[in-house]
Amino acid sequence: MWEIMLLVLMVMTRTRTEEDSVGPANQMHVEQPVDESIVDPPKRRGRGPNLNLSATRDLPKGSKLSLQMDDATKGFIGASATKFATECGIVIRSCCPMKFHKWDLVPKEVKDVMYEKLQVKFHLLRENKVFMEYVNTRLHLQWKRTRGTLSAHWKGNGGRTNPQLARSKMKSDCRNEEDWNHLCDYWELESTRKYNEQMEANRAKQVITCRGGSRSIANHVFHMTNQEDEMPPSPLEVYHKLHFKPSKSGWQNDDARIEYESIVQQKNEAMNKLISEDVEITSAMEHEIEKEAIKSVYAKTKTTKSAWEVGVGPVLRKKDNWMTSSGAEQSQPASSETENLKDQVVQLQEELKKNKEELDQNKEKLRQSDERYERFSRYMSTKFADFQSSISAPLGSEASGSDAQLNEFSDDDQV
What we know:
Elements: H1 2-31, E1 68-69, E2 76-77, H2 79-95, H3 108-118, H4 129-156, H5 163-168, H6 177-187, H7 190-204, H8 217-224, H9 235-243, E3 244-245, E4 250-251, H10 254-276, H11 283-299, E5 308-309, E6 313-314, H12 325-383, H13 387-390, H14 396-414
Antiparallel strand pairs: 1-2, 3-4, 5-6
Helix pairs in contact: 2-3, 2-4, 9-10, 10-11
């Protein structure tokens, strides 16, 4: 009997529970408006900004990273070079205003702030001319890359066809809205549009592309150097690495493969000639032969001489004089002389401004004097009919007397 009653209670309890759970759900479904908007589920959080925390994670507290420079190219090499480039990008995005559309126009005070930010994690040799010139070069490259990323975002949102729409979609990592508006104003200029089109056309002409990425040639050479005997790779090995993908599609394109074969052919011809002359070929000589072969092949298709030659390294120009130690020594007095010249220019500009203000004041006084003289002439003409003929050729004493009369007339006129 008790078992039957317990079973009935269990069935009744289960039925009541199901009714309670179904009833409110049906009621909510009926009361929901048909045109009520459905809220989208929250988006998955993506990757945040790179803070470069790994740069000093393994260092003792208060320690900083040292930067190693390549003797030949004066560029930073090693693992710290990559971390330094990342930090430069962070500093540019957080400190550098984008209203300056040329790197040389960025004020020295702004660059000093960026140097101080970099000094938090890295040792900067502020007194070393060559060192700081390359730091400035790295910041310049990151500045160009940052602006390029923002420009790509602007173009991707219809900047060329619908500038107002693109302006309303500011990139999230842009420093502030003021910077974004400055950039949009610059990109919307007709001169900027023509310049961008010309640069795109020039990039389209680059038949042989390089797969070196953001890592410099000097840093590629550093990582390819044999750690046991410290033997650097040959220029031909560097060229092969920058144009051949062993794990993917091989050569960048047929042009890169043909150029490489031509370089190897010219190298072999030069080597065979030296061997026939019983010349002992050293590693240094072989490297020079490869460099000359690369230059010779590229000279057939490359009419302009740039700062870099693929697989070879930098070609020093006058403006690259700071990359050599002698150039750095010569640039020290030149730098102080330049500062003195700048100070002189500023002083001359101030004097010119002051002289211009004085000239404007004198012009105003002369204008007022002419007006007073005209009034005086009209007054005297009404009183004396022969006044105009009498003053047509005034003597010095008469002119002085006229000035005195003019002053008296001016005083009376004011009264």
